[in-house]
Each structure stands twice: as C-alpha cells, then as structure tokens.
Specification:
Number of domains of chain A: 2
Shape of chain A: globular
Number of strands of chain A: 5
Structural class of chain B: alpha+beta
Shape of chain B: elongated
Number of strands of chain B: 13
CATH architecture of the largest domain in chain A: 3-Layer(aba) Sandwich
CATH class of the largest domain in chain B: Alpha Beta
CATH architecture of the largest domain in chain B: 2-Layer Sandwich
Strand order of the largest sheet of chain B: 2-1-5-4-3
CATH topology of the largest domain in chain B: Heat Shock Protein 90
Order of helices and strands of chain B: HEEHHEEEHHEHEEHEEHHEEE
CATH class of the largest domain in chain A: Alpha Beta
Strand content of chain B: 15-25%
Order of helices and strands of chain A: HHHHEHEHEHEEH
Number of helices of chain B: 9
CATH superfamily of the largest domain in chain B: Histidine kinase-like ATPase, C-terminal domain
Strand content of chain A: 5-15%
Radius of gyration of chain B: 38 Å
Bound molecules: cobalamin
Largest interface: A-B, 24 and 21 residues
Distance between the termini of chain A: 39 Å
Oligomer: heterodimer
Strand order of the largest sheet of chain A: 2-1-3-4-5
Largest sheet of chain B: 5 strands, antiparallel
Distance between the termini of chain B: 112 Å
Number of helices of chain A: 8
C-alpha cells in the first residue's frame, strides 16, 4: 500500500493495484478499481488527483527513465481518458450555472487530460466549464469565447517548449477581449518560467489544485 | 572469389538474429510452395507451427487467387498481403521473396511509417472521442435538468388551470339544468358547446397532471383486490353515453369469469376507460367494440378491439410514447395530444405488465395490456373483501 500526503486512504489502498493494471493496459481491471471507489463515494477530486494524476505522473517518470515504452504510456493515457469519462457523469449538474469558464489546450499541445480535469474541477465547484481539447487553434478558442461569454478563460500548457503557442494564444484572446481574466496551468511551469507571463495584465498562473479551487470558489484572484 | 571468414560469421549472426529475435516474418519455402522452416516471430504471430504447411495457409484467401504463389513468382518485388494471426485479427505485411539456391526465402514486415501514422491518428481520434463524450455527458445533464424543470412547470401550470376549468364546467352544467327553460334554442346550443369544451379541457388537464406526476416519479399504487367484471364496470358506464350517441355497441367477453386481480383498481379503470374511449372514438357509427380478457401464460391479458382504421406498423412503435404525435386526428377532426396511452403504459408497467397493440390490415385495432402472474389473486379469497377502492 502506498501513501501520498493528504490523499484519501481509500484511494491509497488500491493505488498500487491500479497503477499495475494501468501499466499492463488492463482497462477492465482499472474500471473495476474506479467503480469500486465510486461506489464507496470517494470524492471525484480524490479520484482525479490522488489516482489518475498521480498514476500518470508516475507513468511519465517511468517513461523518462526508459522503463516503459511510449506505447505503454499512450495506452495508460487512453485508459485514463476512459476512466475520466466513466466518472464524469458525476461531475455535471445540469442546472443553470452563474459562472462560465472556457478551458483549452494551446496549439501544438497534445496533453489534454490535465486541462480536461481542470475544467471538471471547475464544474464540481458550480461553474459551467467548456473544454476544448488538445491542439486548439486560436479561431476555435475565440469562437467559443464569443458564443459562451465566459467569466474566465483557462489555458493549459504541459510542454515548456510550447510557450510561444501559449503567448500567441494570450495575445489573441487579449486583442479580442482586453478585460477577460485568464488563468494558465499545466506542467510546463513545473520548473519555473512564469516571468514570461508578467507582461500580461490579468493573467494568473495557477500552480496547484488548491489554488485552482480557491479561484473556483471565489476565494482567490482572479 | 572466396568470402572472408568474417563475412560468413556476420551472415551467420544475421541469420541467427533473423530467426530468433527479429520482429520480421521469415520463411524458408520450397519452390513448390511448402514451408520448410519458419522463424520464431512467424510462429508466434500466426500461432501455428508452420513447418511442413503449404505457404497458402498463412494468407487470408481473397478473390484473386493464390497469394503465396504470386509472391514467389515475383522475386525481389515487395507486395502487400494479409495473414491470419493468433489473436484472430488480420495483419497486413509487406512481403519480399528472394531466391536462395534451390529454395526461396520470404520476408514479411510491417510498414513503420504506416504504424506511426496510425498511432498518431488513433491518438487524435481518441482525443476527439474524449471531448465529445465530455460534451455529451455535460449536455445530458443539462437536458435532464431542463426536463425536470419542464415537468415541474407542467405540473404547476395545469394545477392552476384545473380549478377554473372545473368551475366553468360545473356552472355550465348548472345553467343547462336550471335555466334551460328560459334560454333560447341557439343560446342553449352555445351553452352545450361551452360545457363540452370545458369537459374536454378538464380531461386534457387531468392527463397533463398524470404525466407530471408520473414523470416526477410519484406514481404510487394503491393495491387492492377486485374481480375483472368490477374493473370494467365504471369504464363501460363512462363511455356509454358517447357510444350510444353514435350507435356504437360495446360487448364484453371476460374470461376467466370472476378472476380476481391484485391491482390498483382505480388506476386500472383509468387505463381501461382510456382504451375503451379510444376504441369508441375510432369506430364508425353503428360499429361494435369488444372488451375482453384471457389467461396469458400465467398472467392475464386485457384487450379492446375496435372497427376503426387501425394504425401502421410505424405508428405502433410509438403508440405508447407521450407527445409522439400518435394521438392524431380524432373522428370529429379534433387534434388530440395523445397522452392517454402513455399514461396507461406507465400505470401498466408499474404493475409489472406491458402494453400490446396490433392492427391487422383492414380489421381495426386491438389495444390492450398483459399483467403478470403476481397480479392474479386467488379465486376464492378470504384475505380481504376487496372491491375496487
Ligand atoms: C500522457 C502524456 C503524453 C501523451 C498525452 C496524451 C493525452 N491524451 O493527454 C502524449 C503521448 C501525446 C505525450 C507527448 C509528449 N510528451 Co508527454 N506526457 C504524458 C504524461 C505521461 C501524462 C500527462 C498527464 O495527463 N498528466 C496528468 C494530468 C492530470 O496532470 P497535469 O497535466 O499536470 O494537469 C494537472 C495540473 O497541471 C493542472 N492543469 C493542467 N492544465 C491546466 C489548465 C488550467 C487552466 C489550470 C488552472 C490547471 C491545469 O490541473 C491538472 C489537474 O491537477 C506526462 C507525465 C507527467 N508527469 O504528467 C508526460 C509529459 C508531460 N510529457 C512530456 C514530453 C516531453 C512529451 C513530448 C515532448 C515527448 C516527445 N518528445 O515526443 C510529447 C509532446 C507532444 C506535444 N506536442 O504536446 C514531459 C514534459 C516535460 C515538460 N514539462 O516540458 C512529461 C512531463 C514527461 C516527462 N516526465 O518528461 N505525452
């Protein structure tokens, strides 16, 4: 049994089994672990952070150490997407929502699970969160902003080398909507680099899920 | 010219690697097309110990003749062919046959570029699927909520309409009874139209209220015990006026006689009334409508047969769905919203039963329902002196 500070003990108790199944590409086993946790009413946030995210980070580490192949990593991600879809019905309340956010991954960014989870976390806190997936062209982003009139835009960036795409997206949104607050998240900034965002007004880097939730509940800027 | 020793050693190492390790299919084949030797990958991929088999066995036979033969005949060229694999899925390999003394060697490999592209596209498609699924789940939640809102609104609106409609109806009836002597003929006719319209309005409102109640999950059954004859009594009475106005005769044929049922009598009467009034409505003047029952497996079947125009197969499919537009035109040209059958279905299903409908061409329609065994009460019962409540 492996533990992670602050994580749900019920998740900890099945984590190793889940990770092993994920690496084996055993989606049915993963499904039964996740369904078991859902049946025990483990909060979705714990599933997202303590199970899905933690396991994928570990997959990424193993991959970086040449211990698993890119095929294994692809399969693990695809299974995780499936697990997210499995629990997502619990994310959405259908009632009219007061606050709206549009979350998107920037152009050339193929990591989309983080953005999707971030969007879902906003939904869980009573927002209507629209999500545009990987590799979103500026035009689609601007169209959706036009259509949904969000209170907030979230951009996801996992690869630091994609920073130019992020800056281009920020420029495009700023030009069309000078006052629309924007948040940025994702692993690209794990090792710094936030100074490049300073020249933008109303753009906030969100580093942790706690920070994300503070914003979602109105206890943090913006 | 003599090959240096090291070249032979390299060739041997290469051949060994091809046989034992490489993810390439390698077959030594006789010129006649029999497999002499298969490398490890070939055996694993196909799941058969290939040696001695005819080459043709590994290929998927398509229409254009023996694949293996053609490959062997076109030495040096690379051609695509499909093989059977151990996991049951076909695999496309690119084959090249090379002559080797009296034998041939056949190599088969995947196209790496193709695999890369496939992986990339599958990844992208998976992304799209993920996003679509999220969008659908989100929309679904919104629709469910809107639907609940609609039901609630429908309930509130019709609830508010019920009282005024009831007042109009009872005052119109009162006037008809008490003031008929003092009113002119044409005024009396107007009054009668008011009364009939109010009656119709009241029925629609009651249907709406039923739907609202059922959709909000508040269909509670109030179970009791009643004989089938009792269950049809009040429905027969309720339709008798409109039937006799048009000379429609309603006959009954209930079997097994005296069968007692454990049901919510009032709700089932509502169902039977609905079926009966539809049947009378659909029948031409002077026709006969039959209401009956029969044992059906270990349950019981109720049916009402009319002599109307019947319905098409297509309409039959949505007959019991609310707002499906199957209410259609009534005989007097009035449009009906057709909630009655949808309500009936909910009531019957709440009893564990199912609705049924058939319409043999040119023979009118039979609409009814089947109740399961648990709705049958013992014939002689002393547990409850039931009756319809
Ligand atoms: C899966 C994966 C892929 C998949 C992605 C498929 C998919 N469906 O998403 C594929 C195969 C495409 C991929 C490709 C690459 N990857 Co990759 N990948 C990963 C892996 C294993 C998991 C990513 C993931 O989903 N994590 C789980 C999610 C939930 O976590 P998250 O993204 O951090 O999101 C959370 C927060 O960051 C935050 N968040 C995220 N977005 C947003 C947005 C907002 C608005 C907010 C508020 C918050 C927020 O909230 C989320 C929930 O807590 C990571 C390993 C890792 N450590 O994460 C590497 C990783 C991200 N990849 C990496 C690399 C280098 C690549 C490649 C460049 C490899 C290559 N050379 O080909 C390519 C780049 C492709 C491209 N152009 O984008 C590096 C990135 C290093 C860096 N920071 O620059 C990592 C960290 C692996 C490593 N250890 O080196 N990868």
């Amino acid at each position: 049994m492996s533990e992670q500070p602050g994580s749900d003990p019920r998740v900890d108790s099945v984590y190793d089994r889940y990770l092993a199944s994920l690496l084996e590409g055993e989606r049915t086993e993963c499904t039964s672990v996740v369904e078991g946790l859902r049946a025990g009413e483990v909060p979705l946030r714990s599933l997202y952070v303590d199970l899905f995210q933690r396991a994928l980070y570990q997959v990424g580490d193993l991959w970086e150490q040449n211990r698993v192949s890119v095929a294994t990593e692809h399969l693990a991600t695809a299974i995780t997407e499936r697990m997210v879809a499995l629990v997502e019905p619990g994310v959405f309340g259908g009632e009219a929502r007061r606050r709206v956010i549009v979350v998107a991954c920037v152009a050339d960014e193929y990591h989309q699970l983080g953005g999707r989870m971030a969007a879902d976390l906003f939904e869980l806190h009573g927002w209507r969160a629209y999500f545009l997936g990987a590799n979103t062209p500026h035009s689609s982003l601007l169209d959706l902003i036009e259509k949904t009139k969000p209170d907030l835009v979230g951009l996801s960036l996992s690869i630091y080398f994609n920073l130019p795409s992020l800056l281009a997206a920020l420029d495009a949104v700023r030009a069309a909507h000078p006052d629309l607050p924007i948040i940025v998240g994702g692993q690209a900034f794990r090792w710094g680099g936030e100074e490049s965002l300073r020249r933008y007004e109303g753009v906030t880097l969100v580093k942790t899920v706690d920070d994300l939730e503070r914003i979602a509940t109105g206890h943090g800027s913006p | 010219m003599e090959a240096p020793d090291s070249n032979i050693a390299i060739a041997a190492a290469g051949w060994h690697f091809l046989c034992e390790r490489a993810e390439i299919l390698v077959l030594r084949v006789s010129r006649e097309g029999a497999i002499l030797h298969a490398n490890r990958h070939a055996v694993e991929l196909t799941g058969i110990p290939l040696e001695g088999e005819p080459l043709e066995h590994i290929f998927l036979g398509f229409a254009d003749g023996p694949v293996g033969r053609r490959l062997l005949d076109r030495t040096g060229e690379t051609h695509l062919a499909n093989i059977r694999t151990a996991n049951g899925l076909p695999e496309t390999l690119y084959f090249t046959a090379l002559p080797a003394g009296d034998e041939m060697v056949l190599f088969g490999q995947t196209d790496a570029q193709e695999q890369v592209r496939l992986r990339k596209e599958v990844l992208a498609l998976n992304h799209e699927m993920g996003n679509l699924s999220r969008e659908l789940t989100q929309k679904n939640a919104e629709l469910a909520w809107l639907n609940a809102q609609k039901t609630q609104f429908l309930g509130m609106a019709t609830h508010d309409l019920r009282k005024p409609a009831g007042l109009i109806l009872s005052y119109a009836e009162m006037l008809e009874e008490e003031a008929s002597g003092t009113l002119r003929e044409d005024h009396l006719h107007l009054l009668d139209t008011i009364r009939a319209s109010a009656e119709r309005m009241k029925r629609v409102i009651e249907d709406f209220l039923d739907v609202a109640m059922i959709e909000s999950g508040k269909l509670n059954l109030d179970m009791g015990v009643a004989a089938i004859e009792e269950l049809v009594k009040s429905p027969l009475l309720l339709v008798s006026k409109s039937a006799s106005r048009r000379g429609v005769v309603v006959t009954t044929d209930l079997a097994p006689a005296g069968q007692r049922l454990r049901v919510d009598g009032q709700k089932l009467e509502q169902v039977i009334t609905n079926l009966l009034s539809n049947a009378v409505e659909q029948s031409p003047d002077g026709a006969t409508v039959q209401v009956g029952s029969r044992r059906h497996g270990d349950g019981i079947r109720f049916f009402v047969t009319d002599a109307g125009k019947g319905f098409s197969e297509e309409v039959r499919g949505r007959l019991f769905t609310a707002f499906a537009g199957t209410g259609g035109q009534k005989r007097d040209g009035e449009r009906s919203i057709g909630l009655g059958l949808a309500i009936s279905r909910r009531i019957v299903e709440a009893h564990g039963g199912t609705m049924m409908a058939e319409s043999p061409p040119g023979k009118g329609a039979t609409v009814g329902f089947i109740l399961p065994a648990q709705c049958l009460a013992p014939m002689r019962s002393d547990e409850q002196n039931g009756g319809v409540r």
